[in-house]
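Researcher: Please translate sequence to structure tokens.
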Amino acid sequence: MFDWLQKIGGSSQGLGQIQQQFLEMLQDGRHIFDAAANALLGGTATKVIEKDLYETDLRINETEMAIRKELVVHGTVHGAATFPGLLLLMSVVKDAERIGDYSKNIFEIAQAGVPLGDEATLAGLVQKKDQISKFMVRAYGCFTSKDEADSGTLLKDIDAFQKSCDQEVMQCLRLEGSNEAARVLTLRHFKRVASHVGNIVSSVVQPLHQLDFYPGKPLSEQ
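Model: Translation complete:
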């Protein structure tokens, strides 16, 4: 995507800066997610990480605004030919920002201190948390390498992960005599974080009009 913009938009040094800022958003997204999820599942005291968590979210938001401003300038200078790429960038930057928002939602569950389930349930949620963190590392690699094969594999793995979250939510809804609200919310937030990671990766393999839709997946299942 950045290579394409570079070819049609001249040798703007701003594009390199935008790319670096976006990669920093991805790194901050992983940091805030890991912090929030560890507070929820790993016993990290919420008071200990609260300041860092909200500062990271603020940094993500400020970076998003800075990138948007630079994209407007780039489009104004280089014209309509760059607009498809700029729209694509606007979209993936919003996905990166939303990772921070859902991580804050996860942190709020941790602050509430409500039970998530027995030991086996917690172990399953920890496994899902670790999967998402690894998705983010892989997404960073796909975005920097622009490897379509690796991106396609990652999108399939994210799709399978989201389905597993949905299946577990349905199991929770069928349980009687227990409050599974915190577990359901956690699963839903996990799914949304993974979804936004997938949307970012889809920019490597999909044209603008199919952004956020995974290759080979029926639209009815998106």
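Researcher: Any highlights?
Model: The domain at 2-221 is CATH 1.20.58 (Methane Monooxygenase Hydroxylase; Chain G, domain 1).
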